[in-house]
Amino acid sequence: MFSIPLNPKLTEEQFNKHYLSFIIDYRHLIYDFYFTTRIPPFTQDAMGDCFVADNLDGLIQNALYVQQTTGINASATFNNINISPKTENLLEFIRNFEILYYSGIKTATIPFTSWVMNGMIQYEFPNLKLKNTILQSVRNSQEVWYLCEAGFDYINLERTLMRNRDELKRIVEARNKYKEKTGKYVELSLLANENCLGWCPIMSEHFNYNMQRTKEQSQFFNSPMSIVSCSTWDYEKPGIELKNSNLPPWKEDWDELKDLGIDVFKMHGRENVNKLYNTMKTVVNYSQGKEILFDDFNHYSETIKDKFVSVWRKKIKNCKTECWDCGYCDEIGLKNREHEEKIKFLLSCIKNANVYESKCSDSTFEIPTLSSDKILCLLNNVVSKSKTHLEVGALLGATFAASLENNETFGICIDNWKINELHPIIESKNPPVISKHAKNDFLKNMEKIKNKQLIIDSDIEKINLEMFGELDNKIDSIFYDGPMNFKYIKHIFYKLKSLLSNEIILILDDAKNQDLILQFENYITEKYNIVYSKLIVGEELENADDWWSGIAIYYLTKR
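Above: the chain sequence. Below: its structure as tokens.
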């Protein structure tokens, strides 16, 4: 019933203790698991992650290990429609796929219908089950009929069909008629929890970007360009979460689609570990017969759920995602945006920083720094509504000065100014002079900033509450630019928990360290809700004209 992703970013513990045991425990509900497969000519796909050559065999070996250990079929995924479907590429694919096939891979997503119609893949690999790619956006019964005739065994349908019951019924009729005519039953699959806006106007561009991405470039959603997409819509447009082409959380609605003729629900999480855990939790809840499979509606008031969401649930079965002619999702969203203003504020801070708008003076931009002007502008903008701001790792003061300048904010700085081993990878436009006088240089650079300040000269692991005295207001914004080791970030939140506000805006520097980001997010959700998060990573490392080595922005609320 469920097609489950295998995420290549899992740690050894996550893979063995969580993922593998989950597959074994719930194998009765798992149709197959699909995995990132990179063989020429498919060395990149719409997922967007880049892998070095040494990792490619490991990805395949992990999949074979899961298949052998659990008995669940592994499904090789090739999602790139940007390469040419020419004969030379087909022959190259067949040559390279042969070792996978004879190693035990008997299911694959093939991105080109012409290759399947050609018949060469079936001739070379007679026991291979063929899936189409979701990138084909199959939307109607005629397209399904053609794919059946082409030779596919399994068809991924366009996600928006979950809200078009009329066309879904026609698709099932076409599939069944093809079975009556030929004796071959073709399975139908729907995406279930991808969180994409129905009829997203830039989805094809997002996939196009990722399919052409190199390792020097960031994924689409980590790039500055993504600010025009769902990373902004999710918080600017009321009711956007209700317009996303996700199956609703009621088990009854999933069973209704299953009874209609949908064979498989394809679950998300191949590139996002948190989403994978959401997928696993959904399957567990389904197995236990729970009425609600996941908690997307917990933030709605009972009144709104009773009066509006129940009506929405019925409407979306056949609304065809024609939002221009409805507006019901917008109506619900306007009634229930508890954190809307704070998130809009953060989005405006990011947008303004992207065009260098802030209240920073020229002299602040002249302070030598291992950062960028965009980050200085962002800090100045974000801290403008903060009462008490904490910075960890101030170096010569550019980021701390930017945070406080022309803002009515009390600033706290933690640093030890032990910078003997601090060296940039790439020379910045205004490189700091690293010397034993760094703290004195910092204090001199901060003289023009008149805000009340508390400077703490200490190693992170040695801080204690006595160093902070009595604060008038709890810390409600943090910029962390200390050692990029998770234990230090964790120490800040653990040691200073009594000083932290119920709502915090956190900015982590050097966000290209995605292992650290993942560790932090897994940890912080034990104590806080991540109401909003945004990862911005430029295409170049330490680019002084962009976002340096990337930043991660969080709006956290205590549980």
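The chain has three domains: 2-194+245-295, 208-243+297-337, 340-558.
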